[in-house]
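STRUCTURE:
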């Protein structure tokens, strides 16, 4: 499994391992969905949305990407099943595929308050990208 969820006091740590930086961002999106929804496979890729995340620093981009996805859940009640991430000048271009939250099919497991910078780590080790980001639940 390319990511893991670990309890951390009142928080949860998303620990991600990927072969590239872009794959790390995409796996982080999957990890967030796994934290939010009991059965992530219940979320269909029925529609898409696109957005950009400005910045250059990988750690900042990770926090901002996850924060944008969390805001989409909170404001639009929309869940991203999968994200395709590409580097563009000045940041990331993200295409997310998912659907509107349906309480009859999507059982929410955690109320995520924020994506934090506490103990944030993003680094490349022996050709693999590793990250740990703490999520306030």
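SEQUENCE:
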């Amino acid at each position: 499994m390319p990511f893991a969820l670990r309890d951390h006091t009142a928080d949860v740590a998303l620990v991600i391992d990927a072969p590239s930086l872009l794959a790390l961002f995409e796996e982080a999106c999957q990890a967030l969905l796994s934290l939010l929804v009991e059965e992530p496979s219940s979320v269909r890729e029925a529609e898409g949305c696109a957005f950009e995340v400005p910045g250059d620093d990988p750690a900042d981009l990770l926090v901002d990407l996850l924060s944008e996805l969390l805001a989409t859940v909170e404001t639009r009640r929309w869940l991203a099943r999968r994200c395709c991430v590409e580097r563009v000048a000045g940041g990331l271009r993200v295409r997310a595929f998912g659907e509107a939250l349906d309480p009859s099919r999507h059982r929410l497991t955690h109320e995520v308050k924020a994506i934090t910078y506490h103990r944030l780590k993003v680094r490349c080790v022996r050709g693999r990208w590793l990250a740990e980001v703490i999520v306030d639940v």
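REMARK: Residues 3-136 form a domain with the Archease, Possible Chaperone; Chain: A; domain 1 fold (CATH 3.55.10.10).
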